[in-house]
Amino acid sequence: MNSSDNQRAASKTLGDLFDAAEAAAEIVSRGIDAWREDRLLRLAGEAVISRIGDAANKLPEEVRLSTPQVPWDEIRSNRILVAHIYHRIDYEIIWETLVKDIPQMVNALAGWRECNPGRQDEQEH
Question: Where does 3-71 have alpha helices with state H?
C-alpha cells in the first residue's frame, strides 16, 4: 500500500470513528432509563463499541501515538469483550463508555485532525 492509500485509509478510519461516535450520542440522547429498559438499545450500544474497536485497530499508529489521552488498548479490549465474552458485559460500564469515553475520544481525534490540516487535505484527495 502506498502513502496515498495509507492516507485514504486513515481518513476513512477517522470517518468510521466519528460515525460510530454519532451513533453513541444518539443512544445516549435517549437517556439512562431507556438504556436500562430497552434490550435493543443495549445491543446497539454493543455494536457501537465493537465498531469503534474495529476502527481503532485500523487507525495508523501515528494517530494513536499522537492522542495518548485516548485509552486505545482499552478500546480494543472492549471490542473483544462485546464480540466474544458478551455473557459478562456490564451494561452500566458500557453506558459510561458511551456517555464519557467516546466523547473524549472524539475530542482528541478532532484535535489531532485540527493540528494536522495538511495531512487531512492530503487524505481527502
Answer: 3-29, 32-37, 39-58, 61-66
